[in-house]
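Many introductory courses stop at the sequence. We go one step further.
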Amino acid sequence: MFGRLPKLALAGCLLAMGLGCNHARVVELSSNGGGVVAIPDNTNSWPSRNHRHAEELMAQRCPNGYVIDDEREIVVGQVAHTTSETEQKNVPVLTAIGLAPAKLETQQTTSYVDQKEWRIWFRPKDAPQAPMAPSLQP
């Protein structure tokens, strides 16, 4: 009985890794039947196959074929990372007997990192290309 359990667990892990996660999502739909698909990055390697998942979404939306008008990485937000360092300055002997106070100095640093994702603008192959908003033009 226990001989089968490791094999089943291994098979389950391999199946889960092989399926990957579909992180593609439609973020905008246009009136011409197209829209914008977002993926974490422009990769198509195993196990995520992000671009392939985006293509599947575009094909579902445009069953007679689609045209990619533009694709690029865009900034969708920022993450702040804050670090703090505190240093105690004192004279240990005098501080221990209450003759000198302990002095704490704290230094805090915050850095900001852009959060980015890959966006793909698409339309049905027979629809005319719509002008892009000025903020989205390359």
